[in-house]
Amino acid sequence: MQQPTAIRLPALLAAAWAIFIKDLRSELRTRYAINALVLFAASAAVAVSLGVGFIGVRRSAEYLLIQSTLLWIALLFAALNGLSRGFVYEEETRTIAALRLAAPPIAVYLGKFLFNLALLVLLDTVTCLLFIVMVRVEVGSPLAFILVLAAGGLCLATATTILAAIIARASFKSALFAVLAFPLLVPPLIIAIQSTALTLDNNALALALPGIRTLIAYAVATFVASLMLFRFVWEA
Fold first, then answer.
1. Beta-carbon-side half-sphere exposure of residue 114 (alpha carbons within 13 Å)
2. 3-state secondary structure the chain
3. Which pLDDT score is estimated for 221?
4. Is residue 210 part of a domain?
5. Phi, psi dihedrals of residue 10, rounded to the nearest 5°
6. How far, in whole angstroms, is CA 176 from its chain's centroid?
7. Is the pLDDT of residue 2 over 50?
8. What pLDDT digit, counting tens, does each position of 162-214 carry?
9. Do the domain assignments include residue 140?
């Protein structure tokens, strides 16, 4: 009885990977999401550097929290601006019916999730480098900093993927996406800001570890809930 499951799982993963590659190739041709993410990250870094100067050289607890807040605000709004088109693009190009026939719902969600995750890796890398260079943000604990960014990025990817599917057929897609995203993303955003502020100081990983665990738990819960609900959203 275990053999069919063993056969279905590789096929499911192969379908998810094929959808990820399809989205990646399409994005490399149009570069809509990449340009939106990079331009927003660059604009945010330039605006912060011109508005508050080299705030990164100030090492008090209050200034570290401000640096962390500005960084995550830039990441959040860039993500909201670029990750909402995962399913909207399928609606605009009228390929969503073919996608329904070509792959099971879970494979579609996993493929879109992997694509959003790849975009977030690019966004995190570009935004952090710009803030480090232009705002003079100094990272006291690089390993903890990377782990917090990775855990926060998982939260963003899991929430935005299912929300992009929900708003794909709506008339006011961008506005609806932001309205639905904020209640889901505010709790992990607060934890990510506080944890990132700890990593900017010369604190050990142990101080940021509770926040990292909470972010991972939130991402896992959102991911599991999305897998359970996606079939109903996709077939509606």
1. 17
2. CHHHHHHHHHHHHHHHHHHHHHHHHHHHHHCHHHHHHHHHHHHHHHHHHHHHCCHHHCCCHHHHHHHHHHHHHHHHHHHHHHCCHHHHHHHHCCCHHHHHHHCCHHHHHHHHHHHHHHHHHHHHHHHHHHHHHHCCCCCCCHHHHHHHHHHHHHHHHHHHHHHHHHCCCCCCHHHHHHHHHHHHHHHHHHHHHHHHHHHHCCCCHHHHHHHHHHHHHHHHHHHHHHHHHHHHHHCC
3. 94
4. yes
5. -60, -40
6. 17
7. no
8. 888 887 766 566 667 777 888 888 899 999 999 998 888 776 678 889 999 99
9. yes
Q: Count of residues for the chain?
A: 236
d(CA 231, CA 162): 10
How many whole angstroms from its chain centre is CA 39?
A: 16
Q: Structure pTM? A: 0.84
pLDDT tens digits for range 122-146:
888 888 888 888 877 788 888 889 9
Is the residue at 7 inside a domain?
no
CA distance 23 to 135: 33
Instruction: Please report which confidence band the pLDDT of residue 7 belongs to, taking 50, 70 and 90 as the band edges.
Output: very low
- Range of the structural domain that residue 159 is part of: 23-235
Q: Is 57:136 a contact under the CB 8 Å cutoff?
A: yes
* Terminal-to-terminal C-alpha distance of the chain: 32
Cα dihedral 193/77/49/200 (nearest 10): 20
- Whether residue 4 lies inside any domain: the answer is no
Looking at the 3D structure of the chain, how many domains does it have?
Answer: 1
Question: Torsion angle, CA of 138/80/207/69, rounded to 10 degrees?
Answer: 50
